Amino acid sequence: MAARTAFVLGGGGVLGSAEVGMMRALLERGVEPDVVVGSSVGALNGLALAASPDLDAVEILTATWTRLQARDVFSGSVVGQIGNLVRHGTFLHDGSALRRLIADSAGDRLIEDLLVPFQCVAACVEDASAHWFSSGPIIDAVMASCAVPGLLPPVRVGDRHYMDGGLVASVPVGRAVELGADRVFVLQVGRLERDLRVPSRPWEVALVAFEIARRHQFADDMARLPAGVEVHVLPAGGRPPGLSVRYRSPVDVSQRIDAAYRSSIAYLDRIGG
């Protein structure tokens, strides 16, 4: 019986372009997903793949990431950001630019309309749980998964509010296994490849604490894998990125995509994939 293959796309904000290079490497080697699971920016990338599970998705995402600067999603002047913070008290950006970006690729389609089964995760505020979107409007689901605390407002879906999926499952390997996958390829932004450092500045404390929590959850998932499940964590290549509060910093998208592609091809060569 053929393995049921899952692509798991993790969170990582503006570093998410690395996942496009990994996606290209897998598809060029004939590895295609039976199910796609995403969290945070991984939900955004995973949506494109589930809608078009071939190299067309890579071309679309490469063009999107090449054009896209963080300021396009986290748009608005400093005065506007301060205005949002004063009015609402909890976020800097209203999310309208991100919603337009998702709408441009998804329109008003439903998750169940996608060519490959797709799920993304968000953190439910009211009951502090991981909520998996497997049906319903694509835009609401991906917006909820990408709602970074402090930057974007919680997203209301029905009578509940949701925040970034990275809070509950940043690299959701366990969910892929629950969905029946016995071969899992993890597409991640590269932070898993770098040791953390003790924070030396006040603003680094929360970043390091969150990163410890997300990595512990991933490690716990990996430790609980049932026998017979094959998991491959693809390398991002280049120098692993550190933690930063500079969410609007420019990144060399083409370089990150290419580094991840070359490193992932080399990895697949080693495992005979």
Q: What is the arithmetic mean of pLDDT?
A: 86
Number of helices, counting only DSSP H or I runs of 4 residues or more: 11
Helicity, in percent? Answer: 40-55%
SS-based class: alpha/beta
How much beta, percentage-wise? 5-15%
Poorly predicted runs of 5 or more residues: 74-91, 245-250
Number of strands: 8
The span between the termini is 18 Å
Using only C-alpha atoms, the radius of gyration works out to 18 Å
* Overall spatial form: globular
Overview of this protein structure:
By secondary structure, the protein is α/β, with parallel strands linked by helices. The protein contains eleven helices and eight strands. Strands 1, 2, 3, 4, 5, 6, 7 and 8 form an eight-stranded mixed β-sheet that branches. Helix 1 runs antiparallel to helix 3 (55-67), helix 2 (41-51) crosses helix 3 and helix 6 crosses helix 7 (138-145). The chain is globular. 42% of the residues are buried. The model is unreliable at 74-91 and 245-250 (pLDDT under 50).
Task: Sum up the structure in keywords.
globular; 8 strands; 273 residues; single chain; 44% helix; alpha/beta
Summarize, please.
By secondary structure, the chain is α/β, with parallel strands linked by helices.
